[in-house]
Design goal:
With about 375 residues, the chain is an alpha/beta fold. It is built from ten helices and 23 strands. Helix 5 links the parallel strand 14 and strand 15. Helix 8 runs antiparallel to helix 9. The two termini are about 20 Å apart.
């Protein structure tokens, strides 16, 4: 396939006018090196942007399914829906649950990791969100299953997954938390999450291997001028910082602020979507707790927010609408999350040799075409 006449978003964070040749599931050439004899059919992206497929590293569920259900058919339903919305790669995100249940979930998902199909996004690993959290900042995580950080438990679960845990979340101030960060950081990305950590403890966690902050401002102490906490400690750490850009979890002014604070090479847009995403409002389950979805907001009985019902492509458009430059928002929805969990060698940017997962967006940022693994996606 040859994609012509579009402005493609390059690895340098700038749009370029050049054609792209795909061969099999890979990007074969860009610009002058095109082999027109092998580049049929042609996709005309005139007056459009050609951008990498979106990468959601924090999503629990959609269209009635949840990764933590441990049902492969449900994960496939999620993948089909996500692709239709422009998400081409995702991490299945778990919850605070008993070890035996997490083990079953991870084993059931094992055959699905890296599975590439023409009608669905690719499940590229696990975001293990829980159960190593603070009770005080648990949010919608089930308090019954929260336990102190346990590296041996993590090791067993990673083995059950086939080594597919891409990131694990932890409250570093809990008993054994800092030691856990150091050991787990040698295996995968480690994210600070659902934590009461103060500035000093968070700084120690970053120094010992944490490289990520889960949904900044949510599930942590607020940023204060005399107690900057996790938010402040992350500034000089080099860590990637997630933000839920649904217009509910974080005020638009704060979205603009964090892009300025951390820079657009470290910001990651996430959906944190739960099973009600793509579904009517009503009652749903999340990690064994009842969730009510009304007016676009998902809450449990305590009033705590319970993830979002917003897909990543909408979070991307929201970011632009809130005042984030298009190029910065694209980085935060593609290459930054891919880098944060070690997927950037395969996806997240448009470069020769990378997987041909691409979107064609019109100037209003609506999706015109989706290319997955070098094939044009068509809805049924």
């Amino acid at each position: 396939m040859r994609i012509i006449n579009g402005a493609f978003f390059g690895e340098d964070g700038v749009f370029h006018n050049a054609d792209i040749e795909l061969k099999g599931d890979r990007i074969a050439a860009i610009g002058g090196a095109l082999d027109t004899a092998r580049a049929e059919p042609v996709l005309d992206a005139g007056d459009c942007y050609v951008v990498p497929g979106f990468v959601d590293v924090h999503i629990h569920g959609a269209v009635g399914a949840d990764f933590s259900d441990g049902e492969p058919d449900g994960v496939r339903s999620m993948a089909r829906f996500l692709l239709s919305q422009g998400v081409t790669s995702f991490l299945g995100t778990s919850m605070a649950l008993p070890e035996e249940r997490l083990e079953r979930i991870f084993r059931e998902a094992r055959p699905l990791f890296g599975q590439t199909v023409s009608d669905g996004a690719t499940l590229r690993g696990i975001n293990m969100e829980g159960p190593f959290f603070s009770q005080e900042k648990r949010g919608a995580q089930n308090p019954e299953y929260i336990v102190p950080p346990d590296f041996e438990m993590f090791r067993r679960l990673n083995e059950a997954s086939g080594g597919n845990i891409r990131t694990v979340a932890v409250a570093p101030e809990t008993e054994g938390g800092l030691d856990f960060v150091e050991r787990a950081g040698k295996v995968c990305s480690v994210s600070i999450a659902h934590s009461c950590a103060n500035y000093d403890t968070a700084s120690q966690a970053f120094a010992r291997g944490a490289n990520h902050v889960t949904h900044v401002f949510n599930g942590m102490s607020p940023f204060h001028h005399r107690d900057p906490g996790i938010v402040g400690a992350a500034v000089g750490s080099g860590a990637y910082v997630e933000v839920i850009c649904d217009g509910i979890h974080v005020h638009p002014a704060v979205i603009r602020s964090v892009f300025c604070l951390y820079g657009d090479d470290r910001m990651c847009l996430i959906s944190d979507a739960m099973r009600a995403c793509g579904m009517p409002e009503g009652k749903y389950d999340l990690g064994g707790q009842l969730v009510t979805v009304a007016n676009g907001c998902a809450t449990i009985d305590t009033g705590s927010l319970a993830g979002s019902v917003c897909v990543l492509s909408d979070c991307f458009r929201n970011a632009v609408r809130f005042g984030i430059p298009l190029e910065s928002a694209l980085k935060a929805a593609t290459i930054n999350p891919a880098r944060s969990v070690g997927l950037d060698g395969e996806v997240g940017s448009i470069a020769v040799g990378k997987r041909a997962d691409l979107l064609v967006l019109d100037k209003a940022l609506a999706i015109r075409e989706i290319v997955i693994g070098g094939q044009l996606y068509r809805t049924a």
